[in-house]
Fold these 2 entries.
Entry 1:
Amino acid sequence: MKGTLQVNGVAHDVEAPDDMPLLWVLRDMLGMTGTKYGCGIAQCGACTVHLDGKPVRSCLLPVSAVGDKPVVTIEGVGTTPAGAKAQKAWIELDVPQCGYCQSGQIMSASALLANTPAPTDADIDAAMAGNICRCGTYLRIRAAIKRAAGTQA
Amino acid sequence: MSGKILRIAAIGGAAIVAIAAAVGGWTVLGPGPMAFAKGGTVELAAYKGPSPTGVPAALRSASLVKRGEYLARAADCAVCHTVPGGQPYAGGFAFNMPFGAIYSTNITPDKETGIGNYTDAQFLDAVRKGIRPDGTRLYPAMPFGSYTYMTDEDALAIKAYLMSLPPVKSPPRANTLGWPYNQRALLGLWSAAFSPNKRFEPNPEQSPEWNRGAYLAEAMAHCGECHTPRNIGLALNNRQKFAGATNAGWRAHNISSDGDSGIGNWKTEDLTAYLSTGFANSHGVASGPMGEVVDYSLRYLTPDDLKALVTYIRSVPAVAGDLPNRVLTAAPASYKAGPAATLAGSGDRAGERIFAGACAGCHDWTGVSPLSPAATLTGTRSINDPGATNVAQVVIAGVHRQVPQDILTMPAFGHSLNDKEVAAVANYVTARFGAQGSRLTEADVRKLRSQAAQQ
């Protein structure tokens, strides 16, 4: 495909094979390496970005399927209200350990917060279960989401 | 023994014989696979239209081996005569049945363990009558009841192709059938009753395209062997032609022209795409045995042959299925809403938890995938099957289609999820996205695994 991708509010001209995953385009063509490659089969969540506000796994999303829908990555999510709150809470609680999965965690968490401003534990389970953390920072992730939501100190 | 008991036994025995004869007569006299079509048939030699047999026009002048390769693919020999990941055509593929397993044979030209010594006559007898050179009978897992419609020329072209392959020394695996199924001599009776030993006869009142499609579907692709239910004698019941059946732990869906339960509502281009690429919008991805049919066979058909096949399949009369109508609308975006919330409300949230962690990333809580239409669950026949047979199998085995476009792959979860978890997630997704939630148990999943197992 040859076309324009809307990433973090900026239009990028892109020429790529139709079936190239969006993640490849973001990292290798546009130089946005904040989004990570984990498993490559949509099982770990490290590559999560927002497509039209929804969290999607960019490792399996063909770039030709993006069309004119806006893409938001970890580089741009701080400019959204939910993303800014999530990042602030993440820093305050020092959530990451090794950090590799955390871009994806923040993307999934900010999509959750945008739709569900005061998520319950069950809401957090449903939204975050597909994001895996090898270091086991799950308790801090949960606490940070609640802090960002203002439901926990 | 008193006279009274003897008399009852005699009456009972006579009744059983009479019922058996009646059932036998009904089945023996059952219609052939093409009998549904209006018009009579004529012998191939007397048919005036373009030849419905052989290879497509573009391949007519190709070598015998090349023609045989096309026909061997159309007849889908490879999928059953190859162990997944093993040497092509070397046999050993398992057919697991409730009464034991049958293993396919080596059809490479190895002289000791394959068909290297077969004469033309012996090859024709094996393929079309189910009789091996030593006179013993093949089990009808080998679809000789369908291949019997093949012409000499086409069967021998396939032989020439097989003989051109490298010989592989691979001794046959012993079948594990119990009595009486291990009595091969009984198969002679089966063949006499159910396998007509009859070549393809075109129907001049149907179009040339239909006749070509009939030959491809019946003599070659043997669609009915999986998609037509079997009678009490395990022969195809063509009164219910293409109404769907369960084989090897997978459900072969209704492909009669019934509206919702069959393919009556499918657009022709969707059907063509499904057969040639393994995927059609809103119908999902061909998986399990049907996926293998696409990979090994149908994707090699020429566009004209594909068109003929579709024409023929669409002409098969509607047989209403026993599955509920498909739900065509997406589930709610929130995990809290929707039919499966009731299931979760019962306190059992195992399926929902597994879905959140392993499935929602691709399939979404709505069932409409944001990643690929191939991963959309909404509207597919399998998600709307309250038996959840194929859903459970896809969870276990994943999807790995080798088609040129798009990414048609799903990881296999059979090793990471136990039987109870597979049941839980299958029950959850059929309730959330389908017409009716399944009620699979741990034991059901164990059984499904063993039926589809290849090792």
Entry 2:
Amino acid sequence: MSDIAASAGWWTRLANPSRFLALSNRLGPWLAGGTVLTLAVGLYLGFQAPEDYQQGSTVRIMFIHVPAAWLAMMCYTVMALSAIGSLVWRHPLADVSVRAAAPIGAVFTALALITGSLWGKPMWGTWWVWDARLTSFFVLFLMYLGLIALHRALDDPARSGRLSAILVLVGFINIPIIKFSVDWWNTLHQPASVLRVDGPTIHPSLLVPLLVMAIAFTLLFFTLHLVAMRNEILRRRVQVLRRNAARQIGESR
Amino acid sequence: MSHATYVALSYGAALLLVGGLVLAIWRDGRARRAEIAALEAQGIRRRSAGRNEGMGA
Amino acid sequence: MKALFWRDLALAGRAGGAAMLGLMFFLAVVAVIPFGVGPDLNLLGRIGPAVLWIGALLASLLGLDRLFQADREDGGLDLIVLQDFSDLVLTVLVKTAAHWVITGLPLVVAAPLLALMMNVEPLAGGAVMATLLVGTPAVALVGAAGAAIAVSLPRGGLLVSVLILPLCVPVLIFGISSARAAVTDPDPFWPPFLILSAITLVFAVIGPVAAALALRASSD
């Protein structure tokens, strides 16, 4: 029981932005340091890794492509969880979290698409194929862009949090449906031939750098998300200060 | 083009995008801090340091 | 609820413009395609079902922002939002149904006619009509959520389309593939058609609930 009470206490205490700022100030440097360290190790291991007998040196593209793709999906999951927090518990930081995550997710989705295309050119011979995975990622990218457009259109933070949370959740429910339909569409239109990349299992010499890079990217995401959340909190504070200042001027006249 | 070119292009794109993102977030943070500092210099302060202001709670 | 349905129909009928505009847009989009791809009847016949579906999708997206706009302008929206949550969801569902009858149904009726112009086989034209009949409600239902999210915004119309279009991808895929399957022999017609129906039913739950939540959130 005391466990639950303690965690609830921690949770509500975190709802206070000032405490969150203090915590993020303490946590931020550690996260950033961890990111730089794992990124360096990952890159070193990545370039030490032997070339794949089929893909040649292009296999190194995978060391950024796969983690970026993983982040693109994890970021949407983080946003969906925050959206639940925002709608159900009205946790004030959840709004901030959704808003801060969207641009980061869009950038990593774009990175996954670009590196996928750069990998596809030497492997498949074209920059873009309407392959099931590429296509669903493209749709995901569009969803991120839609969210950012909504954020830009809504400037009142109190209202915009819940509205974007609803959109995030509707999108999250839709992701499996979209994935399923794109797979269906792809098998209908294209014979699955060259596009099977998940053939043989990955050799450990490639798997280790891949995992390290995935960890590095995850840390990178949390670092950026933390700082972006901090910026968002400060932005709202500036808004409130400006409003208060305007009111004071109005009263003194 | 050789395979190495594609690898270099990929890592370049990653550097550009992630670097741009880091830079954008960092500059955003600095701009916000500067705004708060400017407001405080004008004598406009938060009435209480620990309250949930403007958080839509 | 029935009264609300008829009231919405009457209002939209009196305003007139919106329903006709959607239909005219549909006709214009389909008419423009041959200028783009050339008048080759074989090619047109092959891409016809897809063109009709995309045209209908765009036309139904464009009208969506009108769904709650009229109520917002005359203040009725504030009264609607004051109801119980379940009543609110039901109201949204009824309003969406009325909206679909005004804007979606004309598209379905016009589709076979345009199918003839696109040299689509009669059977495929019928299939397009059937899939549109089942599929366009899905667009309107999930669109209701988008319309509710954007209701308080200026320039909401374009935003609704941007927000909703990615979510409509499954509807488009299954709509077109079952319309195609009706004429290309080995592909079965029913599985994609039934999946399309299932998607419409899922959206019938998600759309109004999300729209009701969004209306609540933007009126706070």
